[in-house]
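#help-structures
NK: newbie question, is this the right format to request a structure? protein is AI-2E family transporter
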Amino acid sequence: MTSQLSGPPLAPAEPPQDRTDIVRMAAWMVVGSVIIGLLYFGQDVLIPLAIAFLVSFALGPLVRSLVRRGVPQVAAVALVMLTVIAMLLGLGLLITSQVSVLSAELPAYQSTIRTKIAALGQSMEGPGLFDGVLQTVATVQDQMATALQDAPGSVADPLAVTVVGDGPSPFSTAIAWLTPALAPLATLGIVVVFVFLVLLDRGDLRDRLIRLLGGNLHRSTDALEEAGKRISKYLLMQLVVNVTYGIPMAIGLWAIGVPGWVLWGTLAAIMRFIPYVGPMLSAVFPLALAFAVDPGWDMVLIALALILFLELVSNNIVEPLLYGTSTGLSALSLIAAATFWTALWGPVGLILSTPLTVCLLVVGRNLPQLAFFDTLLGSTPALDLPTRIYQRLIADDPDEAYDIATDAIAATGVTGFYNQSGLEVLRQASDDFHANARVEHRLRVVEGMDSLLDDLQEDHPADPPGPARIACIGGKWQVDAISARMLVHGLALAGVAAEVRPAGAITARQVAALDLEGVGTLCITSFSRDPDTALRATVRRVRRRWPDLRIVLALWNAPDGQAGADRAAALGVDQIVLSLEEAVQRLTPAAPAPAPAAPAEAARLSALSASGVLDGHARADLDDLAMRAADAFDVGMAFVLVLEADAEYVVGQNIDLPGRRSATHPAMTWLTRGDALSAAIVDEDRTLVVPDTDRDARFSDNPAIRQWQGRFFAGTPLRTADGHVLGALCLADRDPRQIADAELDLLDRIAAEAVALMTRQDAVIPEPRREVPPAPRSMLGQRVPD
């Protein structure tokens, strides 16, 4: 009987994903073992190379500075190398002279040392806590020794035989003394040669490293550039920190009266290059000498207090001031790296552990195939903020979730936290509802979010005046109702009274039970990815009972293209919002912009008039600059705006922007002060980024944005050296987009060039932005500059 089932032949079964992952992990373990073996057995060659590269990172800026001043490359390298060698020789002579002086003075302190040791011995001879235990142990040892001697067959100790012969020859003695010194001298010579060659042909070496890294040329270039800057700054800042520690140490020891204070200050500065262990070792010598010099204990205690005070000042004031707020590397990774490199290369590995780990971190940040280094070594949290909160809620740890949320609110505010993190937590919970979450997990998330919102409302209370004219309803699920609570709290903080209605208002019975008397606006929140059918029915029922009610639909999971007026009309609602910040903007009555302070505004207008930019003297240069900005940021429009008392003028643009032409300046497009794009930037003196103008109430109805068809807008102040903001350098594009802080730093630089063209003065480059990571929970980490 033939089978009735037929079809194409089965494809060969693919190996399970778990098996593939195991094979890949095993391959990585083999590769890692081979690399560690090469590092260990090749340390005689690799250690000089590593030291040479790090020293070249530190000396590279000096060489480049001399070359820019017209000094030939070879002469610049030779000059820097000779200067460094001369400084090291001078330091060695200083240390040698100090050691010789101390060695001549040490015999004079023998009596003081004997007296103190004898006094300590006498104090220890009195009855103590463990005297009985020690006496018992001594008695047992004596009895065991007597029993062994009396045992049958015991043999007396053999006589010691001494072989007397000719002593070693003078040549053998010299070889024995010189051999230990030859290896460090050979290593030093290799390092000097390598440093000279690296500094001499740095460009060729960089090209070869880029070729070895392979992959994306931009990423490889960024990796090498970032590594060079970070290592150079780290070594320079470490030198400054050590010197600022060693000089006060030497002066303090001199004031106390400790001999050899120059030696101990120099030693303290040098030993601090060794992480963790160095400061402790450098403190032993002056304390021991203070113990030997002073018959009493005053000098020891004062020297100890001096060392502790300098450590506190250096760790908590000097290092944060010079390094900044970023550690770059986590405390755990620094300790693990110090242990790893010390096990491989000994004390030299301990000294090199931090720079080498920084190199690995930079490579991991810029090369995707080595991104695990960034995860293992970096101080940036491995999970983003919403995921961390979500994981704490799943783990039934709402207290830690509250701590994380509190830290985030300190930086972004409550509404910003709800918009950036709170909704994302609920979005992840909504996505995992059927896929991964168990019943227990769902309950923990809902209860944890309710508890978190209760705590945040207590910490940030708001009681807007007047009756609640806005009602918020969760569309279907409990997460929808939690998002409605967030929106109500955000509105209250904005001064708008709102209240939450019961969740799940989706059926005819629940809609009929609603009490919306006195409510002017109803906001329905939903995380559903396909809510049209259910929401359309709900809106129809609500419209039937309250035809004049304004209905706003908050679709937290809707794609960007599905939030326009056409979809709002299809669903029967007045407006669709996609973010909590947009919802707060749309539901909050527009407040008139505060008028700028008269004296400051007068000074600003005076500076603008003094620049003469409205006379057109820099128009061609500003047009070229706008074109350069548009090309660099890959946007359709870039323009330079200046803000007058009652109008805004486009004084530079990459394309001919449509709009009104000024009668007094026919070549310039102008806008009224009420429609000015730079007004908020000038008044608040800060950069403004709007990823999507359709989603921002301040720009969605702006006539210039609508006429220029701009969806993305970003602007940064045109700030003079005196602090007056003349206008803004702006970017616009017809597609929504995001912009990173590093790109905003570049925008600030171009804006500074624009101000220089307008005022005929040198450009003042503002300080770059930098992301502030969360405060480390441990102070064990060694600081690394950004």
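mod (FA): yep, format's fine, and the tokens are attached above. Residues 1-14, 771-786 have pLDDT under 50 and may be disordered.
NK: thank you!
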